[in-house]
Amino acid sequence: MARVGHFDMMTRSPEKAVKFYSGVFGWKFYKWGGPMEYWLVGTGDRREPGIDGGMSRGKPVKDLVLTITGIKLDKTLKLVQKNGGKVVQPRGPIPGVGWYAAIKGPDGNLFGLMEDDPKAK
């Protein structure tokens, strides 16, 4: 079953964001070693309910992006269009992690879609 498995946020000042979120919520930030500037965000004990996320440098978007995991991306993109949604970022690789796309539902809500694939390039 598809479920929210990750959140994503953007910030112009990652250093300030790390200080704020770790100081307020105790979140842990880990610099990702991939080809883009990105931090993994640990929000608590993985044995407890909740999700972890990520942060990248850039212009913040209006809202946080919730990413749906546990899907077959191509099949899901077809279902999005069949059911009145729109693909706003086509399928693309996150090297060593998987395939990502972004969609908007007919109500305008933005979601990321992620299919795990360590061989993605």
Shape: globular
What is the beta-strand fraction? 35-45%
In which range does the helix fraction lie?
10-25%
SSE series:
EHEEEEHEEE
What is the makeup of the main sheet?
8 strands, mixed
Straight-line distance between termini? 26 Å
Question: What can you tell me about this protein's structure?
Answer:
This protein is of the alpha+beta class and 121 residues long. It contains 2 helices and 8 strands. The protein has helices at 14-25, 73-82; strands at residues 3-11, 28-31, 38-42, 53-57, 65-69, 86-94, 98-104, 110-116. It has an 8-stranded mixed beta sheet with strand order 2-3-4-1-5-8-7-6, with helices on one face. A hairpin with a 3-residue loop joins strand 6 and strand 7 (98-104). It is globular. The mean pLDDT is 91.
What topology emerges from the helices and strands here?
Elements: E1 3-11, H1 14-25, E2 28-31, E3 38-42, E4 53-57, E5 65-69, H2 73-82, E6 86-94, E7 98-104, E8 110-116
Parallel strand pairs: 1-4, 5-8
Antiparallel strand pairs: 1-5, 2-3, 3-4, 6-7, 7-8
